[in-house]
Amino acid sequence: MSSYLDRKKESIRRVNKLMDDMASGQAQKEQIDALNFKYEKLSKKYDQLSQVFEFHKGIIQNISSSMITIDMEGIITFANKSALHLLGFSADNILGKKIDLFFAEQDEGQQIVNALIEQEKIYESHETRLLASGEEVIPIGFSTTFLSDEKTGERTGIVFIFRDIRDLINFRKQMERMDRLATLGELSAGIAHEIRNPLAGIKASAQVLEESFSPGDHRTQLISRIVKEIDRTNKLLQSFFNFAKPNKPKPGFHSLKNITEGIFLLLATRLKRRKIKFHSEFEEKLPLIYIDESQLEQVLLNLALNAFDAMPDGGTLSINAHFDTQYRFSGVEGSAHGAIIVTVKDTGVGISNEKFEKIFNPFYTSKSDGVGLGLSISSRLLEENQSKIEVDSTLGKGTSFTIYLPYVHDNRQEY
Amino acid sequence: MARRLLIVDDEETLTFSLYQSFILSKKDYEVATAGSGEEALEKMGEEPFDLVLTDIFMPGISGLDLLREIKTNYPSTDVIMMTAYGSSEKKEEAATFGAAHYVEKPFDMKNLKELVFNILG
Prior knowledge:
The complex is a heterodimer of chains A (415) and B (121). With 415 residues, chain A is an alpha+beta fold. Chain A is 50% helix and 22% strand. Chain A has helices spanning 2-62, 81-87, 91-94, 106-118, 166-211, 218-244, 256-273, 293-310, 353-356, 374-384, and strands at residues 66-71, 76-79, 126-131, 137-148, 155-164, 252-254, 276-282, 289-291, 315-328, 337-346, 388-394, 398-406. Chain A starts with a helix and ends in a 9-residue tail after the last strand. Chain B is of the alpha/beta class and 121 residues long. Chain B contains five helices and five strands. Chain B has helices spanning 12-24, 37-46, 63-73, 88-96, 109-120, and strands at residues 3-8, 29-34, 51-55, 78-83, 101-104. In chain B, helix 2 (37-46) packs parallel to helix 3 (63-73). The A-B interface holds A 189, 192-193, 195-205, 207-208, 211-212, 230-231, 234, 238, 241, 247 and B 11-14, 16-18, 20-21, 24, 55, 57, 82, 84-88, 105-110.
């Protein structure tokens, strides 16, 4: 009897166990399903996050602004592509180094870093100079923000965002110069009046007096000297006004080749007399230039005459031109692309370093009979024509002036 | 009848020497001078002139104002403008208002006299 009962008990236990097992199997299945669901969700989230990460990384790496981050010890922890490009270093050369080392003046760098870390100062459009590879000093404008731990709010680092401001500084200098020149122009008109009026009176009086003497009279000769000196003074005034207040350019499309040929004709006898060879070379498909023809002539003539003086024992004067489609004028936005680049080169005595900075200044001259306005007028005239001039020289070898004329598309022009 | 010439400038040295020069020339000219545009108009009101030689920049009535006034009221009077400013804009302005010529100071007496002789005969 009991064995029968035992058997039944055993069956019931088995059935119960089976029921239990079935129930737990169901639970496990549910658990697995839930895990699967979670996995899918997480993996989607992961994809999304890595997309966001790549997106942000792309932005940070590709923005034109340079970006460097440092930790609270001043050690560089990150530099984006633009920053590495600007400084001319690879990431290995920068990461882990103190940021002070990359300032042109390290004291200033330390002060900035100290102010950031210790006084929690924030810089906005501050200007300083960095030291790039090859000892090149680059002026920059920078701003800073703090990195902080999201949970604790504790500062963990500093972001430097900066830009190369060389173009901006050049542009600013140019503007300041234009400002000064505008004032000078106004001033010069007044001076013109004040000086030329008495000159006119003196000259008229002298010439009326001259008429009362016979031509051979020594008094006539004295008076003609007065007149000559008045004319000389007036000529000087004229050059000065050309510089201070040049006539408004009247631009048109012209062939640089024709202009150069005109200048060559004008100088031909002098070239021969001074044993100077003339050489010119123009790119075959050089576009027409849009400029005030007579003003450019004046510039090229000034440069040629300077070259003559630089080659007292003869030499070669060459004028070459080519079209650079990629050239960009600093401070000019947008479509102002391309320049016709003209070089006027001599094989003369050259210009020493200390004179280099000054040659474009008015009244600076190295010639005993010069007024020192030729180059300053030239550079002024080119400025008025949206062009610019640069100089390069080697003492004893020669000087080369490079003129950049902006390319203006001429609809009538056919290549 | 003698031809009449009026010289207008606030620079007395200049009007004096021009006056001398034209008086001494062997031409039968009546020459008068004025130190301002106002004085010039006053003198023209008394008796007209054949030619007025005037500075552009003068205090009060300027040479260009004077030119306009002359061209309105005395259309047969010729005008030569003189200026110490080398500005081409003024030159164009003077030409549009009917100035016969435009000379820049300091000028050559010989050239100026030729110009005047050509106009006055």
